[in-house]
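hey so u asked for the seq, here:
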Amino acid sequence: MSASKKLNIDRSALEQLLLKRFFFAPSFGIYGGVQGLYDYGPTGTALQQNLINHWRQHFVIEEDMLEVDCSIITPSKVLETSGHVAKFADWMCRDTGNNEVRRADHLVEEVLETRLENDALARKLAATSISGDQSAAAPKPSGKKTKKVAAPTKLDDAVAEEYRSILAKLDNYDGDGLGELISKYDIRNPETGNAVTPPVAFNLMFQTSIGPAGTLKGFLRPETAQGQFMNFSRLLEFNNQKMPFASAMVGRSFRNEIAPRSGLIRVREFTMAEIEHYVDPMNKNHPRFDEVADIKLPLLPNAVQLEGKTETVMMSIGDAVSQGVVDNKTLGYFLGRIYLYLAAIGIRTDLIRFRQHMKNEMAHYACDCWDAEIYTTYGWIECVGCADRSAYDLRVHSASTKKKLCVRESLDEPLVYEKLTCEPNSKVFGPKLKRAAKPVQEHLESLAAEELAEIKATLARDGKATVTLAGTAVDGDYEITADMLTIENKTIIENVREYTPNVIEPSFGIGRILYALIEHSFSVRADDEQRGVLSFNALMAPF
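ran it, structure tokens below
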């Protein structure tokens, strides 16, 4: 049975109940409200707090995580370094008639799904017509004037299958790909029938200025992670230099969504609960992995999605890691823990799946990512992301600030190896390069062995080489000659290993989980369908 058939809810009746009991309501309602902003009432606030309390118990307390609370306003430089200023964007298009803004991938999804629904209805009507059962083919007349509705259109089998394939891998399309779909399939604004413009990137962060002069630019944070990374060295010291360890944070984040719809599913201000688990890149095992190894999860790997399919595979976490479906044991451990958390608060386990991100969908900082998706009346909704951020964030912030964000670990036995090194001749190097001497030296020392070897070969062949600086106060091309430095292999003996940790990040959207829980807890009385019932378990019950 498909997930959609397992969740039979009258959403309008549920929404009326939630509004009446003031679980949540549009913010600034007496002024007409603002899309994507919601206020929680007493019941909704209590329910959200119970979600957070159990999250803290399940993760922070049980696993000795270090909880922090960091600043919401973030200087622009931090988010420029992290890549958010350049890359934290969605694709949007505009209605050519009324200039209404739509998110491109959601528009394509909405139109193609509507066409498939109409195709299914047309096939059903055709089948009932052939069988002679006209009672199911059309609604009975009510005696009232009704708006004429266009008859549903049946699609060719090949076209219907093509639509389903596109929808299965829609998250893998970039702006150009979405533009091609819009053009090829004549995707229009369903509310007006107007054509839409080609997709353009729109950065999702709210910009602000810090201080009265307005010279220091900043943003409202789009995630809580960056504040945790800024404090990595302090957290490591607090943990007595012991690895691995995890920091955790619950707080507000902000994203200027293009066209927020679907209630709490897509909002502009929301509560996140994020964990940053720091791990040795050469050892991504987890000491508690065996506790979750036998848990079976419904997995949707990216390879299946690229085939245009959405069928999940039931697989134990242990098998998923051993077969390379899930990259490592720490990532697998947190997938299991996420599943146990969702089950404990009352999410229906038959309406949970774990979907792997495809290449074009992957965040700029991630090397692997799985979403815990929960089925609701809005379809499959991403509620928890679990990403292997590798060492991206700590490395870029370290390079930008010249501050070491790394772990120093004493070795039982010295590590001996050969390394190509660069040794400047101070009598010539400084006088020739002047102000650029230090930046050029730092640049050369930061090069990979292959790049440094190439410069060595160029100096040996031509007697000179060119070094290009970027992102410094003395950017430009600088000529170095063979007499200015020596590049040679040296034997390195290390008694201390220095490395930048990788980060495994489970990120929870509390509002989405709350709404999914509400739907999964809703029913109507058998003897009175007008009376809705919300049945939360003892952990979550607001009162």
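The radius of gyration is 28 Å. Residues 142-147 have pLDDT under 50 and may be disordered.
lmk if thats what u needed
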